[in-house]
Structures are given as C-alpha cells and as structure tokens.
Amino acid sequence: MKNPELCIEIRPVWWASVFAEREEELKRKLVGAPYNLRYEELREFMIHYLADAVAYQPLRDGGEQNYDAVHHTISKQLNRISIEVGPDTPLCVVSHSLGSVIASNYFYDLQNAKEKTKIIDPSSALERGETLSLFYTCGTTLPLWSLRYTSFDHPIQVPSKDFSAMYPNIAGEWTLNKSKYITF
Questions:
Q1: Are 21 and 69 in contact (CB under 8 A)?
Q2: In sequence order, what are the residues at sequence separation of 6 or more whose Cβ sits closer than 8 angstroms to the Cβ of residue 98?
Q3: Spatial contact of 89 and 78, defined as CB atoms under 8 Å apart
Q4: Which of 165, 110, 107, 115 is CA-nearest to residue 137?
Q5: pTM of the model
Q6: DSSP string covering 105-164, please?
Q7: Can you tell me the distance from the alpha carbon of 181 to that of 29, in angstroms, rounded to the nearest whole number?
Q8: What does the pLDDT look like over 51-109, one tens digit per residue?
C-alpha cells in the first residue's frame, strides 16, 4: 500500500458536552459573587475534572443516566464512522484519562450485555463493537477505577471475539499506558 495514511479515518468523541452546561452553572454558583471564595482556579479545576468522574457514575435507580448519555455520544460517532467507511471496518480506539474508562466501559457493556447499550444501527458490526481491534490508552485512570471492584479480572476483550473471524490476518492489541506510580 503506497499511502496507508489515506486509509485512516480519525473521529473524536466529545463526551464532555454531556456535562458542560451543568458544570458551567455549578461554577457560576460556587465561584465568584456572592461568595467570592478563594482558590478560584482550584475550584474550577475540580468542577471540570472531578465532576466529570462523579457525574459519569451509573445510577442504581434506573433513572435518566449520565452514563447512558455519555455512551450515546460514542454510539453516535460509531454510527457516523460506520456510514462513512463501512460497517465492517476495523476499529482502533485511542483514549485518554477518564475517556479510557468511558471507552472501556462502553465496549465492556457491548461485549457482556451488562447494560443496555443503545446502538443506532444494530446491523453494523462496527457499532456492535465486533470490529474492535486496537485499544490504546494514554494517561489512563483505569487502575484507579479498578478499585471499585473487589475482583477486576474481566477487562474488555481486544480484539473482540468476532474480529479474528472477520480479519484472521490482523492481530489485535491493547496497550495500557502504565503510570510510574500505579501499575496494573
């Protein structure tokens, strides 16, 4: 292949939009007048970073879930990719920080049917997560999230179980960026 870069499609998923408006409202209420609390930059940092992690948690009561809304942003982008490049195209996921946890949860739910992950086109192997071949994480918080479980011994399968049947000559890979402080 002369120009492999012509065969690569990159699509970002901006899941933070799910929380952006409410985080800005919270910031307006907590930072500045009438309270004029100190450490404004620290408060903004906590609202924009820690709040995402807290708000993303699945709820047990089954009400409207931020978890589902965040996963829907992934589903919409996978649908666009499927339409543009084909429903059987190998999928490589590159994620960062909390995005690694979100992507891992999304594909875990697809692979294990733990949650009712809504996909737009159920006939698309890409949208069903069956073409997941590569999963790269950078600055991941997965080791921290693993503390939620007494036994964190069943991560997502990469490549997905159906991928090898579709593409027997392509090896899958999952690379977990290792922190010098926390290893997995």
A1: no
A2: 52, 53, 56, 141
A3: no
A4: 107
A5: 0.83
A6: HHHHHHHH-SS----S-TT-TTTTTTTEEEEEEES--HHHHGGGSS-------SS-TTHH
A7: 36
A8: 888 888 887 776 668 888 999 999 999 999 999 999 998 999 999 888 998 999 999 89
